[in-house]
Amino acid sequence: MKQSSLLRIQQREKAVQELKEAILSLTRSARAAAEESDCVFTELIRSVELKRFEVRELIKAQEKSAIDEAEQLLDAIQKDISELKSNQAKLEQLCQTDEPVRFLQPHRRSPTDPGLSFGPMMTALSDFKGLMQEVCQGGFVSIYERVRDVTIVGSENPPVQSNTTVTGPTGSASQMETSVSAAAAAPRDLNQTSNNLNPFLPSGPAKPIFAFSPFGTKLSSGTRQRHIRRPHFRRR
């Protein structure tokens, strides 16, 4: 029994050492994941800032081009007005002639649109904003689900039972039973409780916006319909 007790002690010490190594390994992995997350989001921020600058420059360039064309057309119209004023004598002669068609000059219409604005561009920009928010919401939900799946001690580990028999000096044996169980909280679903550290999830039970496959890809509408559980009624 002494050897059995020593063997159990060695097993517990080995389990303690393995747990310490697992904690250290997970700490290193979490630090590396946090650094990688910082790098990814920094690159995304830089990319969005670059696109913001490009769109702003595109708007300025289009504004300058449209104004230049309008100014050129304005100069042409002013020249036409000057020519019409210089032909005032011909117009007076036109009132005295029987064939006024000969003195009519061709009039060039200005292709202007009084309602011209950047309204459609602003609508497209608003649609792009909504699309980005939708993609970010679904992507962040997928990230949080996978982060919560990372655990050291899973709930599937059964409790470890330790039975030790100690023999006293009088030869009578007393049975001592020690139950050691590793308490492990199973990863909670994002749709059950809200995380105060997650600003992208509403308070209370969250309604899933996207359905994700095991690889994090968005399922099609047909696949989502097949995943819906339909109620079955029993026949009496």
TrEMBL record:
It comes from the Eukaryota. Residues 155-174, 215-236 are annotated as: Disordered. Residues 9-136 form the TRIM8/14/16/25/29/45/65 coiled-coil region domain. Residues 9-36, 60-94 form a coiled coil. GO terms for molecular function: zinc ion binding. Residues 224-236 have a biased composition (Basic residues). Residues 158-174 have a biased composition (Polar residues). Keywords: Coiled coil, Metal-binding, Zinc, Zinc-finger. This is Tripartite motif-containing protein 29. It comes from Oryzias melastigma. The lineage of its organism: Eukaryota, Metazoa, Chordata, Craniata, Vertebrata.
